[in-house]
Amino acid sequence: MAYERKELGDFTSVVCFKAVITGVEDTLGKDGAGVVFTRAGKMRGQNRVKDLGMAGSVLPISELAGRLDAALGKDGTRLANVKSVREEGGKIIVDTTETVCSFGEEMGSDRECSFTMGAIWGALEAIEGKTYLGEQTQSVLRGGEFDRFEFEEL
To answer: Residues 124, 63: contact at Cβ < 8 Å?
Structure first.
């Protein structure tokens, strides 16, 4: 049986998570940390989808936003609000707000949302049973309406 936190539960603060991010960046550099956090996010997203019984469900695009938001948004792990998912030009585009990565950052910051992108990436791959290449294409920190992630099937 796994050890459980009976009083504090499953969640920790965004402030503490951001301290982990900045500490790892300080140790590995931004590029190295980005690789680590993207991979960690992918694993978390895949495991979250499996825990919710959604792995391999191959959902229509119209249902993905609701399912991803339920897993990762306000009623899930609170990693980010998933506002929309759509397909454009052969890519799946996911728009998010209130990402953990952007929290507390100054406007204009060059911070990327590697863990959040990875979690959505991993969840998407687990649901769809496909392999994607992902990238962040918009940031609220740099004037975007959303933290936007685009995924192209390989």
So the answer is: no
DSSP string of 54-65, one letter each residue: -TT----HHHHH
CATH number of the domain at 14-153, out of 2.40.160.20, 3.30.1380.20, 1.10.3300.10, 3.40.640.10? 3.30.1380.20
Q: pLDDT of 98-123, one tens digit each?
A: 999 899 999 999 999 999 999 999 99
How many Cβ atoms sit within 10 Å of the Cβ of residue 137?
13
Rounded Cα–Cα distance for residues 154 and 22 (Å): 31
Structure tokens at 87: 């397909």
Q: Report the distance separating Cα 58 and Cα 25, nearest Å.
A: 35
Laid out side by side, the sheet with 132-138 consists of 81-88, 91-97, 147-153, 132-138
Low-confidence ranges of the chain (pLDDT < 50): none
- Name the token pair of 14: 């965004």
Structure token pair of residue 41? 């996010």
Cβ contact 136:107 at 8 Å: no
**CA-wise closest residue to 42 among 138, 104, 133, 147:** 133
